[in-house]
Design goal:
- This protein is mainly α and 383 residues long.
- The protein has one domain.
- The chain has 15 helices and four strands.
- The protein has a two-stranded antiparallel ribbon with strand order 1-2.
- A hairpin with a 2-residue loop joins strand 3 and strand 4.
- Helix 2 runs parallel beside helix 10, helix 3 runs antiparallel to helix 10 and helix 8 packs parallel to helix 15.
- The longest helix has 29 residues.
- The two termini are 39 Å apart.
Length: 383
């Protein structure tokens, strides 16, 4: 909003307001979005937590969960609503909202947040940790995610030429994009990326089981996508081998001139995450709830698609993948053999049952997430 309102008038407003030229630079708006999101969280969180306590919106603990979780019962939940506010408002303020990728990503974030809100509301109202039936949750995710992806992939009038040419190509991690892309027909590509978005959303949701466990890898992933989006959208040229090349061409990654604006969204996600973590770190004063985890996961899924990192997201979001796989393996084993592989799933509860202190599990998972992020960024050059 600030970008759209003020930037067009930077010349007519006079030399004294020449600083408005800063709005043309994505790094400046990334920084401002990050700071704005953090301030939103820091300022509003105390009031928000008090309101949740007044309305008795507290966590419902699973009866089969670790004994240490009994003390968490009643802790305010649905703190993800504050994350969404702190994420979406700075995005609207500092990003170019005419950008179709920002619009689609923000729409999925907000829409999945609504699904998560309904899930949390039913859990609290019915005093049942099951919440919204899985089939209704999945239908909502398909409708919202499918609509946003169709908007981004089928309406080419809003898209840059480079994106239209490569929109259904998959980039293989550690392989030069220009030499070995995987080209899919649109009828196969759209369902595939929809699975990526929905899978990421639900994987983040499964990871959100300990104080600060999910928000750490979410911020780490967002920071990685920030770098990738900015580079993919870069049009800066330099001389190499006697000819001018852009940064995406030099690194041989998928170019997308409109992707740079997604860095602003990533900055807002990082800022909102830090602000929330201040109150969510162990022992948590507020929990994220499905309203936050489903929305943040959906946003990360959209970032993976628009930066052409659909396959690399398995590495970058390795923590989320492992958490989801642990549940799948546990359920499959129990149904087929009547035996459990883990003491409890998702896998972070397995380590709790083994006696690991909660902070140790959280920090070690964060360390793994940082390592995976570094590997993902290294793939940009190792091709």
């Amino acid at each position: 909003m600030i970008y759209e309102l003020l930037f067009p008038y930077r010349s007519s407003l006079g030399g004294s307001l020449g600083f408005l030229n800063l709005l043309r630079y994505i790094p400046f708006r990334v920084i401002m979005a990050t700071i704005t999101a953090m301030l939103f969280s820091f300022v509003l969180a105390p009031w928000f937590i008090r309101e949740l306590q007044k309305k008795q919106i507290g966590q419902i603990v699973r009866s089969d969960g670790p004994e240490s979780h009994r003390v968490k019962a009643g802790t305010p939940t649905m703190g993800g609503a504050l994350i969404l506010l702190s994420l979406l408002v700075p995005t609207f303020l500092w990003a170019d909202m005419k950008n179709p990728f920002v619009l689609a990503t923000a729409a999925v974030t907000a829409g999945y947040g609504v699904i998560g809100y309904l899930d949390d509301y039913l859990k609290i109202k019915l005093r049942n940790p099951q919440g919204l039936a899985g089939r209704y949750k999945l239908l909502g995710q398909i409708a919202i995610g499918g609509g946003a992806l169709a908007f981004a992939f089928l309406d080419t009038t809003r898209m840059p030429a480079d994106w239209v040419a490569l929109r259904t190509q998959l980039s293989v991690p550690f392989v030069a994009f220009s030499k070995h892309p995987i080209l899919l027909p649109m009828a196969a590509y759209l369902p595939f990326v929809l699975v990526v978005v929905i899978g990421t959303s639900n994987a983040v949701n499964l990871t959100d089981g300990l104080d600060g466990l999910a928000i750490g890898p979410v911020m780490i992933s967002a920071a990685t996508y920030l770098v990738w989006a900015y580079i993919a959208g870069s049009t800066f040229q330099f001389l190499q081998g006697g000819k001018f090349v852009t940064l995406p061409q030099y690194l041989d990654i998928a170019p997308n001139q409109h992707a740079g604006e997604l860095a602003v969204y990533c900055g807002a996600m990082i800022g909102a995450g830090f602000g929330f973590l201040w109150y969510n770190t162990y022992p948590a004063q507020v929990f994220m709830g499905d309203v936050g985890s489903l929305a943040l996961g959906g946003g990360l899924g959209m970032l993976a698609v628009f930066t052409k990192n659909e396959l690399l997201s398995v590495i970058l979001g390795g923590i989320f993948v492992i958490e989801a796989l642990s549940v799948i393996v546990q359920v499959t084993s129990f149904r087929l053999t009547g035996k459990r592989i883990f003491l409890m799933a998702p896998i972070h509860h397995h380590y709790e049952k083994k006696g690991w202190p909660e902070p140790k599990i959280i920090v070690r998972f964060w360390i793994i997430a940082v390592l995976l992020a570094l590997v993902s960024l290294a793939s940009m050059k190792v091709r």
